[in-house]
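Per-record layout

source: Tricholaema leucomelas
name: BBS10 protein
length: 213
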Amino acid sequence: FAELHTAVVGLPVATSRILPGLVLRRDFAACCPAEGDLRAVLVTEPLRPALPTPEVEFVIDSQGQYQASLCWITRRTEAVVQHLQSNNIKLLLSSVKQDAVVIYYAKLHGISVVECLSSEEITLICEITGVSPYSPLSDNLHGEIIDTTVVTFCQPLLLGSERCVHIGLPSVCAFQPHCLILCGPVGGVTEQHAAAVQGAFTMLQQLFKTVDL
């Protein structure tokens, strides 16, 4: 329920509504509008590679080596984003904050980016779509990216003074995701309404559980 409702303070209660899809309480890190269905991919790690790893000791002996290392990182990052573009990826949903160079190349290649999603949001999207997060650093950047989903729409949404992202997701089960927008003049009102709605859903779950038995 926490990921399927959004509380908005400072608006009349009458403006509360139900929206199809999911509302992500983040703004676009990169917004590249596109029409029609969009292929999207989930990531839980930075697309910009880091030179040192837990298993490898990395030693730089000169400024020239350092600059060469930075150039390699930049080229590798561009190659990762180009690989996404070659697979017709138009939306990147990330649980981590991506480096500025990733955002730059994403804009350059027409890929929208939403970052800093919570682990609960990522888990919910995985459950709805049936896909797993894509690991770009373990990929050889050849071939098709399998773990993608089709987003039926992706658009900015303004809730009060907060900029959000509204996406439509196809479901692999009977569940069709919708998001409840609960508005109120103050936080206490929206919290009361949210608690009441959650309580009603809990009661219905218990009712239908009894009927099934």
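summary: Helices lie at 63-86, 100-108, 119-129, 187-212. The chain is about 35% helix and 25% strand.
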